[in-house]
Amino acid sequence: MKKKYIYLLIVLAIAIPLIPTAYSFWKSGAFDLVNQKFGPIFWVGVIVFIVFILGIVFFATKQAKKALQPKTLANGLPATATVISSRQGNMKISMGGVNQNYQLIIEVNVTNPQGETWQTTMKEMINITQIGIFQPGVSFKVLYDPNDKSKVVFDQTKN
């Protein structure tokens, strides 16, 4: 679904319940009472509050999508990682209640083609259906930073 339709749905989800409420407030004279008690600045505050909440939703969604993007290394070199241990981290992202991703902390032994081996820790957002794959002894392709061998990411290249 395109972003503009999502934003339109959000606006409609807020506006549709507010329209009858605002109409009943207007008919009962409650708007006049609020204006006498607090002044028109109250309504500016209400609008600012609504925009603030929409901004939080927008940026939280943007951050969640960014966290789910695979990490890359521009100058990464290929290697093989073997899982030593894995455990759940402290982050969970749920999109629509169905697509659940958890942070997984994976301790690995990395071996490059030259035979060098070192231990490091990877922190990755993994879909709940794939968490069971990362058991001790399982190997997978990774890319590592030759300048900082502790930086290791999944190899996303298509070979």
UniProtKB/TrEMBL annotation:
Q: Keywords for this entry?
A: Membrane, Transmembrane, Transmembrane helix
Q: Which domain of life is it from?
A: Bacteria
What is this protein's name?
DUF3592 domain-containing protein
Transmembrane domains' residue ranges: 40-61
